[in-house]
Write a structure and sequence with these properties.
heterodimer; A: five-stranded mixed β-sheet; two-stranded parallel sheet; 7 strands; globular; B: alpha+beta; 3 helices; about 35% strand
Chain lengths: ~110, ~180
């Protein structure tokens, strides 16, 4: 399992359990994220606290998940991004479509 | 301009053995730039660029040998990937497909590879047939995530570099990707 899921106040906090989010686990991550959305989770917080690196394949899966969430009326939030990863997301402008917060609590309070 | 130093690595055929090699490449970059104030920035960018080049290499090079070469210059660093796999094929956003080697009639063209609400990825085919990849921000930004492209490899490399080019060496059948990071 790539995602470790916990429910908190109506939110699903999904911690990505790998340090290297890459082509090797991007498809598994996508399937698990789609599964969460398809089972009716509407507020999904993806926690990156354990992720030290991310590649283009994993980013592709994140965007695929975001698109799927939108079609199902769900929201995805990104939290606890390391500064290098945040910088990369900003560089390729993903910060324009993902809701990014420092912590899960911040994401929850934003609603 | 002459290089001040260069290091070269042959990639393992088994992609699962790539990570230890990447760490070795980065350690050698650190060592080569140890006295430079740009070392941290170059290392960070190099990791992403090399990973994306290699991920792409494993996808498209088949059994061909892949070489990564890092060249150090007084003004910056060149990260070069070479292989003898199939030459580049670009599927353009309008449906046209360009495969290398391309005819002279395509020289000096600027073609669009992809565009989405956030980024525009173009390729400038230069007078010598080299291709320069250029990313531009889409302005104004459309925040419709459902239209965002899911392919980021070329966008990441082109965004991190000051210059990112593809060259096909017809004589030797070699694909050469050259990314240049200047010391800014």
């Amino acid at each position: 399992m790539i995602l470790d899921n916990k429910d908190q106040n109506g939110f699903t906090i999904s911690t990505i359990t790998v340090a290297e989010a890459s082509v090797r686990n991007a498809e598994e991550f996508k399937q698990e994220l789609f599964g969460l959305i398809d089972t009716g989770q509407k507020q999904i917080i993806l926690n990156f606290e354990k992720v030290g690196y991310i590649d283009s394949s994993f980013l592709g899966s994140m965007v695929a998940g975001l698109k799927h969430a939108i079609t199902k009326g769900a929201e995805i939030y990104l939290v606890c991004l390391k500064s290098d990863i945040y910088d990369l997301l900003t560089l390729i402008r993903m910060n324009k479509v993902f809701k990014i917060y420092n912590t899960p609590e911040e994401a929850i309070q934003s609603i | 301009m002459d290089t001040t130093q260069q290091i070269q690595f042959k990639l393992p055929a088994d992609p699962s053995r790539f990570n230890p090699l990447l760490e070795q490449i980065l350690a050698d970059i650190d060592s080569s730039l140890s006295d430079s104030p740009h070392a941290i920035n170059i290392r960070k960018k190099s990791r992403w660029i090399i990973t994306e080049l290699i991920t792409n290499g494993y996808k498209h090079s088949g059994e061909a040998e892949i070489i990564i070469r890092i060249e150090f210059y007084p003004y910056g660093v060149h990260i070069i990937k070479e292989d003898t796999g199939s030459p580049l094929t670009l599927s353009l956003s309008d449906g046209e497909v360009l495969s290398w080697p391309i005819g002279h009639e395509h020289y000096n063209r600027v073609v669009n590879i992809s565009h989405d609400p956030l980024n525009i990825l173009n390729a400038h085919i230069e007078p010598d047939g080299d291709v320069c990849f250029i990313v531009r921000e889409k302005q104004p930004t459309d925040h419709d995530a459902t239209k965002v492209n899911e392919h980021f490899g070329l966008i990441i490399i082109a965004s991190l570099c000051n210059s990112f080019k593809y060259r096909f060496d017809k004589d030797e059948g070699r694909n050469i990707f050259i990314s240049i990071i200047n010391f800014d």
